[in-house]
Amino acid sequence: MKQNSKIWQKFDIFSLRLRLILGIALVSALGLGGLASWTSWKMQQILINSHKYNIAKIADRLPRDVLLYNEMMPIETSLQKAINNLTSKDTFLWVKGADHKIIAKSNNWHLLSDETASQLMSLTEMLVKPELGKVSQRYFILCSGTLPGNGKVLGKLFVVQDVTSEQIMFMAMVRSLAIASILVIIVICVVIAFYIQHSLQPLRQLNQMTAVISLSDLGQAQLYLKNAPTEVKELANTFNMMLSRLAQSWEQERQFVSNVSHELRTPLTIVNGYLQSVLRRQNNLNPHQLEALETASLETERTIRLLQDLLDLARADSGYLHLRKELCLLNDLVAEVVSMAEKYSGRVIKIESINREIEAIIDYNRLKQVLINLIDNAVKYSAADTPVIIKLNLQSEEVIIQVCDHGFGIPLQHQSRIFERFYRVDEARTSTTGGSGLGLSIVKTFVESMGGKVSVRSRLGEGSIFTISLPAAPLPIKV
Predict the structure, then answer these.
(1) Which residues are paired to 455 by β-bridges?
(2) Do both 310 and 452 map to the same domain?
(3) Around Cβ 363, how many Cβ atoms within 10 Å?
(4) What is the number of other CB atoms lying within 10 angstroms of the CB of residue 338?
């Protein structure tokens, strides 16, 4: 299946290379085919016209010779003598009277087969103008005319010339010319294919260079092709200007998000502090006021977390995300996170781990935030009576942490995008869950900043498994 896919890609009917090859092949076929056809037609005309001229000359001369000989001998003898004088190996003459009986003929009919001679002599009508005809698998130039004598018409003159050998040679030459034309077209297509492939190489290089440009490379990315055609160089320059504009736009957007997040977080923190202070003196509040202030406090805290997430992402984009990496015991970290999550959610959260200590060089607080986010998602999007399982294992030189639930699951078409910022799966993430769409983006950013990877495997109705892979701490060298 993969091999068929590669072949299909190689012969993509919409590719520029294939279109150019087919276009040149078509033009070559039409050009060479037209030239070969015109050459064949012209050669045939030259060959046939020379024979036509000889036949017409014989048909015109015979009556004069008959009249000349008739002055010295009887008409029948004069007619036969004139025919014999004009007869050659390939030229055949005969005269038919008014009753369509042959009254004179050339003496070389034995050179033809009986069938061919019979079919020729049975002809009663021929054009006055010499024309090419086929009789009994042989080719002849045919011509006829009236034969006058002594003031009356002696009969009808028929003159033919056998051009079979010339016609067969001509047809063989035409076949050779057609084969040569096809071979030339094939050679032209092969040469042009290699030439086009070489000519399109700069475009492929341009495609490869642009394919590897990431968001972090926008400011430094420059496309340069040394030996490319002028048009491709202009395209590369246009790409460079576009990348520069994109980098400027992205930097402005990142700076805006960072500034807004930083500026709004401080006043909201102050507001939340005042709200908490008022809530601590709740004895002076009626139930409606208490409910309103609690709602305001919760929304303020949610907004502060959102702004903190945006600020962390902006710092990560600009390369200023501060990590305090140190050697940590992951068994203790996972146990601490699970204990906090159980108290906060009231759910059963199980730990499945190998019976040994697992260490990694990580940022303790960042990985803690990552696990809290994943457990929070598992709790939100699974039924209350189902457990959430945290698995901690060591595989080769990697630490594997998995957060498993038996919840709603994530549709396959959304799984490749759930780590994008503000992306929400409508089927599972409703406004009642309170998600901002940044949690998984934060998870991916923090895990990758620590040199790890995060992935998801999910089925609808069966739940989801989020897997974090981190480099394991190197084993101590034994002395």
Answers:
(1) 467
(2) no
(3) 19
(4) 17
Helix-then-strand count for the chain, H and E: 12, 12
- Give tens-digit pLDDT for 95-125: 888 788 888 888 888 888 888 888 888 877 7
Q: Which two tokens stand for residue 24?
A: 């040149």
User: What are residue 388's DSSP bridge partners?
Assistant: 349
Any idea which residue has 């101590």 for tokens?
A: 476
* CB-CB contact of 121 with 102 (8 Å): yes
Residue with tokens 């972090």: 216
Residues 296 and 331 in one domain: no
Predicted TM-score of the model (pTM):
0.50
Whether residue 45 is contained in a domain is answered as yes
Kindly provide the b/e burial profile for residues 6-20, where b requires at least 16 CB atoms within 10 angstroms of the residue's own CB: eeeeeeeeeeebeeb
Integer Cα distance of 387 and 407 in angstroms: 10
Of 141, 171, 201, the position where a domain reaches its end is 171
CA atoms within 13 A on the CB side of 443: 26
Rounded average pLDDT over 202-221: 74
Does residue 293 lie in a domain region? yes
Q: Do 113 and 251 belong together in one domain?
A: no
**pLDDT, tens digit (0-9, with 9 covering 90-100), for 364-415:** 888 988 998 899 888 888 888 888 999 999 888 889 999 999 888 888 888 8
Same domain, yes or no, for 141 and 41? yes
- Please state, in angstroms and as integers, the Cα–Cα distance from residue 351 to each residue in 247, 339, 385, 389, 430, following that order: 44, 10, 17, 6, 29
Q: Are residues 355 and 438 in the same domain?
A: yes
Concatenated DSSP letters for 453-467? EEEEEEETTTEEEEE
Query: Would you call 65 exposed, middle or buried from its count of C-beta atoms within 10 A (0-12, 13-18, 19+)?
Result: middle
Domain extent, residue 243, equals 230-318
* pLDDT score recorded for residue 271: 75
Q: Scanning the structure block, which residue is given the tokens 């490869």? A: 208
**The domain spanning residue 158 has which CATH number?**
3.30.450.20
In a domain? residue 121 = yes
Please identify, among 171, 186, 208, the residue that sits at the C-terminal boundary of a domain: 171
What CATH number does residue 387 fall under? 3.30.565.10
**Range list of β-strands (E), 301-451:** 325-329, 349-353, 359-363, 388-395, 398-404
Does 270 share its domain with 402? no
